[in-house]
Amino acid sequence: MNVVFLSPHFPPGMYLYVQRLREAGATVLGIADVAYEALRPELRAALTDYYRVDDLHSIDQLTRAVGYYTHRYGKIDRLESLNEYWLATDARLRSEFNIPGLHAEGIDKVKRKSAMKRVFERAGVRVARGRVVRRVSAPVARHFIEEVGYPIIAKPDVGVGAARTYRIENDTDLDAFLGDRPSIDYILEEYLEGQLLSFDGLVDRSGEVVFASSLVYGLTVLDSVRGADMFYWIDREIAPDLDALGRHIVRAFGVRERPFHFEFFRLPDGELAALEVNMRQPGGLTVDMWNWTSDIDFYRAWAEVVVNGTTSVPAEKKWYVMWAGRKAGRTYRLSHDDVLRRYAKLLIHHERVDDVFSTALGNYGYIMREPRLDPLLAAAHEILARA
CATH number of the domain that 30 lies in? Predict the structure, then answer.
């Protein structure tokens, strides 16, 4: 099997997917914009071949690279980056070379939040009411606010995470947003109050969910982007209604042979409201947290799905696994060394976060695990307590 992997060097953990593909018997063909010598040794060893382009945003250069691989190795069986940023590029290249997977004509429903909302609604899934605001559309925005009231959330119709997302509390906020927002389509949504959580996992070639997990957030990603310290954890048990709704959405979106990350609010009335779908694994070190919660190798599971069509992953989650992220420029009650000493029995990993991801996750993260949730919550609050 010939697998083209786009940007196998970044984010840094991508090399593990490449390694597992190679171990599963695939011919792995990398494309990136850095010198071959700059790739980490483990990645170089796992790649069968490597094609350097000057600019990963250039579809012409990427087309030449895939064409070269086709000429040299024969038909390309899969093309992947497992990266939200390159999702549309992946789809365009698959369409151009007739490679199985998500194609360009299906990209809107998994990239454009307004299109996601229509899929949710057709599937009977509760969502926040929303309205797309185009470049000169102040009347549309004001009419929507008359309908749902303040506060509202404004976010790019196509975007990743909470980047360039606003909470609009009143007319002054609305005027400021309309006056200097970027000239892209935005979606306005009614503000929903509730617990943010996710249904995540891996779907095999036949559309079966072969691994499922759920993240519970101590605060919303938007709150973190606005300055709060992020903490979240992997639940040991997935609520039955969340599991059922998540699998229903997998079918509604026709997910095949890929990881996914679906976000929801648990509303005060107990119902679930869908926020958005992401056709990739959650960000940060969440995949490693999956591995630590169940003592599995998700990287290998994904590679086996790609090469063999399916895989088997133990369902039991032995541990709660917690992320607590600190932001630079703040003084915390406990020093780094204090954290390492006090929580030595809970800590399984800690590291500096790449600047690209630090706005939401923090600049330095601590990962802890324990069979009980309460000790982890107490530790996270202490680690994030300000001086």
Answer: 3.40.50.20
Strand blocks (E) in the chain: 2-6, 27-32, 49-52, 78-80, 130-133, 152-156, 166-168, 186-190, 195-203, 209-213, 215-217, 231-234, 258-266, 272-278, 320-326, 347-352, 364-370
Q: Token pair of 356, please?
A: 């690209």
Q: Three-state SS for 271? A: coil
Residue 113 lies in a domain: no
Note whether 260 and 379 are same-domain residues. Answer: yes
If one counts the domains in the chain, the total is 3
At residue 133, the pLDDT reads 81
Q: Distance (Å, rounded) from C-alpha 235 to C-alpha 316?
A: 11
Position 162 pLDDT exceeds 60:
no
Domain span at 200: 195-384
Q: What is the pLDDT of residue 184?
A: 84
Residue 225 clears pLDDT 80, i.e. is over it: no
In a domain, 72, yes or no: yes
Residues 88 and 9 in one domain: yes
Residue 357, Cβ density class (10 Å: 0-12 exposed, 13-18 middle, ≥19 buried): middle
Residue with tokens 């997998």: 250
Contact 351, 289 (CB under 8 A): no
